[in-house]
Amino acid sequence: MGKSENISALNANTDLSDCHPSHQILFEPVQIGPVVAPNRFYQVPHASGMTEANPRVRAAFRETKAEGGWGVVSTGAVSIHPSSDDSPLPFARLWNEADIASHALSTEAIHRHGSLAAVELWHGGAAVMNRTSRLPPLSPSGISWAATHVGFMGQLRPKKMTGADIDEVLHWQRLATRRALDAGFDILYVYAGMGYLGYEFLLPEYNHRDDGYGGALENRVRFVREMLEVTRDEAGNRAAVALRISLEELRGKASDHYESEAHGVVSLLSDVPDLWDVKMDSSPTDCGASRFRPEGAHEPIINFVKRVTDRPVVGVGRFTSPDTMVSQIRRGVLDLIGGARASIADPFLPSKVRCGNSDDIRECIGCNICIASWHDGVPVRCTQNATAGEEWRRGWHPERFRRVKTSTSVLVVGGGPAGLEAALTAARQGCDVTVAEQTDDWGGRVLQESQLPGMATWRRVRDYRVWALSQMGNVSMYTNSELDAESALSFGADHIAIATGARWTKRLYSALEIPSEPLERAEVYTPEDVFAGHVAGDRVLVFDYDNYYLGGVIAEHLATKGKHISYATPAGHASAWTFMTNELPFVYQALARRNVAIHTTTNLIAFDGQCAALQNLFNATPMEIAVDAIVIVGHREPRDTLFQALQHEGDETHRTAVQLLGDALAPGAIVHAVHSGHSFARGLVDDTAIYLRDEPVVPAEPLAAFPKQ
Ligand code: ADP
Ligand code: SF4
After folding, report:
1. Residue 410, pLDDT score
2. Hey, what CATH class is 409-501+639-683 in?
3. CA-to-CA distance for 546 and 441, rounded, in angstroms?
4. Domain 509-636: which topology?
5. Does residue 135 sit in helix, strand or coil?
6. Ligand 2: which atom is nearest the Cα of residue 381?
7. Closest C-alpha residue for ligand 1 atom 27
8. Which of 57, 79, 181, 560 has a CA between 20 and 30 Å from the CA of residue 210?
9. CATH 3.20.20.70 intervals, the chain
10. Is 196 a catalytic residue?
11. Quick check: helix, strand or coil at residue 160?
12. Mean pLDDT within 158-173
């Protein structure tokens, strides 16, 4: 099917009769150069951890978004040449003809639903280390990104590009454009953001050149202009050309001729691309966690672009509210609503708005576990959407559920993330579901943690599921209902899911980096004591070897209560794993604002009720801090006594039908609990123990990575 036929097919299907009148503007088509986006929902390029190694996983992930109504669906970074090699971090490539077929799987899947397919052609410049290709990284002036995080450090500094090098990169962009067209893409990107090559030419910190590509702003934009021109020249009218650009640093730079250098760059290139895709400069600010960045946080940086160019503008901001989206358009900030995380958490967000079903949007919580997947080098995982990345290999669809063939009853014990997700998914599959929760409200740990500083948005994990369960006719929900084995068995359910969570312990931490014996004293507390408001004393030490967000958040929380807080961790940073979720710099800012004293690579050895004995993890240098209390955020143990009791009390039938879920099975982050709950429920219909293994699409004969020129 041709492109225009696809678009008209989707437009023909676009029935707006159920759409709220004020939201209908979101479904207007937008002309982007020679192509037309069928609506304003634009899934911007985002890291998905899906490379040429898993082309089917990738195609199905993107197809689901097109099916859910995103008018444009983009790839993540697609390298144009082996000199842009980000390994071991995941990236895709169009290095030669061998790479076309795997991308064609994605474009065909996207086109099936009438959406446009965009490709983020990318050269990483000095920001990549070329660990596999072993080519010297390229840069305008030999200046590298000197990262502070080990995972981003490399010891190979970039070479200074000669004029011939610049011509070569332009030629590689042309060749990649040709291949992208062959793969079926409709929108082709030039990337000048996030520290990559185009951005390095724009920024005077990287660009010290004294030739026609350096110095005055007019010269610094030249490389980006030529990349756009070569892409346009090769694409002709077959595809649109988009410029993705970071404007945060440039907007802060004064200019003699323009309001800022950002205004200058957009003015100088105003009508060169068909589309402006505007963003921030670094992952922590561009993809900010909700703990520190609200919805629409980019607006103060990018709000001028539409005043300077007539070309359509797309931007992001963790938009999940259709009212906010409409406001962005009506106020002239954006033409297209960019979504990365919003589209991962709910691929069907556009269709839900179109059907007047906005209450059913599974809103992103801004936890950035999806980003952590990229840092981990694995396909995307999402806290809110357990099906993300599982569309092809497990056959999980976010909105369609296979129904149980015979009447099936399920009792879920525990109303935290795992229990709620299990109950909702089982109910959607047609089971008769009962959920029992011992406390007086739903949400488990999410309910407690979302009351801490910056964590309110995480409550959406609970709120979405409680709302969705309330819409189902086949669900009974009971709070204030602590079940023991006898009462659980009395329901006579076919399946009992035990989602009773985990409890924090007071275990210390050994020099072998293993949780050790508990520090049992009245003045030693756990996070549960913090939630219950039990922590006494003015001077408190938070000892954190959990290393994710909770230790830092608790330090912040107790400091807001007027206590003097010290924070110690055996790790190299406070809340060290929050580097993976883009939160780390802001954790430090938050703790500094609260005057929290931070001690890293520091172990807690003993506490006599007045003085905490600490020790450097590596050289055993001792230190003492006078404190009244200690909160240990370290090791968790499953709360599985009900499960154990059922093993003893149940008959043979019940023994096989009782399953542990979530933290009660294996304590983890909320994303793990939700996945566990979902997997349990899908397992009532399918064998979820098995998933398909993706393979690269390989040509009959291996092709050289370097194209002949
Ligand atoms: P998960 O992240 O695995 O969902 P949580 O700790 O968030 O775990 O939630 C577990 C929930 O189970 C809590 O809300 C807790 O009150 C509830 N719960 C624990 N034991 C029982 C029980 N015996 N009967 C009913 N609810 C229980
Ligand atoms: Fe949003 Fe978290 Fe899902 Fe990422 S993992 S899309 S931040 S809910």
Report:
1. 98
2. alpha beta
3. 26
4. FAD/NAD(P)-binding domain (3.50.50)
5. coil
6. 5
7. 414
8. 79
9. 2-376
10. yes
11. strand
12. 98
